């Protein structure tokens, strides 16, 4: 029987709410040494915020720390259910160049699965390694004409 995301996901994940501001979000990321925070209303996932979102949509746009999280939030988020197989999750992460996927059952956030969860636990190592390789290559390409 194939392993499911439920078996490898982090169920105890740090979250923020739409009532939080971007300064509180930044402090949360620093305190927990994370760069990805699901944003919830109750248990319902409404989006995610990344350290990159904070920089690009928040501080680089000269928003103050009191700006609502909703101003930097990514609301079009790929999610998976906890009964998704690890193989399916790895393929989805590779296909969409995603490092972290919120795990949602019936609209409620139940956890997060990260690319590292696939590799560290040595489950479907080929798919996880391929996904990580694809994601890394996609995100870290050098600009055309770059000279060493």
UniProtKB/TrEMBL annotation:
Q: Which domain of life is it from?
A: Bacteria
Q: Which Gene3D superfamilies match?
A: CBS-domain
The residue ranges of the CBS domain are 9-65, 73-130
Give the keywords, sorted. CBS domain
InterPro entries with a match to the protein in the record? CBS_dom, CBS_dom_sf, Diverse_CBS-Domain
Question: What PANTHER family does the database record attribute to this sequence?
Answer: CBS DOMAIN-CONTAINING PROTEIN, CBS DOMAIN-CONTAINING PROTEIN CBSX3, MITOCHONDRIAL
Protein name (Swiss-Prot/TrEMBL): CBS domain-containing protein
């Amino acid at each position: 029987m194939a392993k499911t995301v439920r078996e490898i996901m982090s169920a105890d994940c740090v979250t923020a709410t739409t009532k939080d501001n971007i300064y509180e979000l930044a402090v949360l990321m620093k305190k927990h040494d994370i760069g990805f925070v699901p944003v919830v209303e109750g248990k319902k996932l409404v989006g995610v915020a990344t350290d990159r979102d904070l920089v690009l949509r928040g501080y680089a746009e000269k928003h103050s720390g009191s700006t609502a999280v909703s101003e930097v939030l990514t609301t079009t988020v790929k999610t998976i259910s906890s009964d998704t197989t690890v193989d399916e999750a790895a393929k989805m992460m590779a296909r969409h160049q995603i490092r972290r996927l919120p795990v949602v059952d019936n609209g409620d956030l139940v956890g997060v699965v990260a690319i590292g969860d696939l590799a560290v636990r040595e489950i479907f190592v080929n798919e996880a390694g391929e996904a990580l390789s694809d994601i890394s290559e996609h995100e870290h390409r050098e600009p055309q004409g770059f000279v060493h």
